[in-house]
Specification:
- With 165 residues, this protein is mostly helical.
- The protein has one domain: Ferritin, core subunit, four-helix bundle (Ferritin, Up-down Bundle).
- The chain has 5 helices and no strands.
- Helix 1 packs antiparallel against helix 2.
- The two termini are 29 Å apart.
Amino acid sequence: MIGKKIQKAINEQINKELYSAYLYLAMSVDADLKGYRGAAQWFKVQYQEETGHAMKFMGYLLDQGAAVELDAVAKPPRTFASIAEMFEKTLKHEQGVTASICSLMDLARSENDYATQILLQWFITEQVEEEKNDHDVLAQLHMAGTSTGTLLMIDKHLGKRGAAT
């Protein structure tokens, strides 16, 4: 049986994951409106992944016989100055998510909750990948600078990101 502290913390993480999804959906819309269809697709896939993360946490709580407590999701920003700003905010946001998941791991360890530690290890590995992907895209965008042609090539590449599995 899962402890009340862990249950509460995972419910809070579910809300964070849903905010992440909402943030990436807002970025997708803004990128699309700016004509960056590839980045819009990239952020749509990111939206799907974050929704999947929330569902994974919800399923875990339900498997443990614990209640899922959905909370209001904060409104994300609506517009962004550039694609580079979107990815800078994405990286900063994902670093915050990583810190939150690591705090959950600390709590699970202090509670000797081995099952939750196993679940969280998957998320920690996922966060390493998330941050690496964001760093890679940012590096490309910084190399491109203001070169419209290069930005369009990067955008085309971002659009090749397939749906989340």
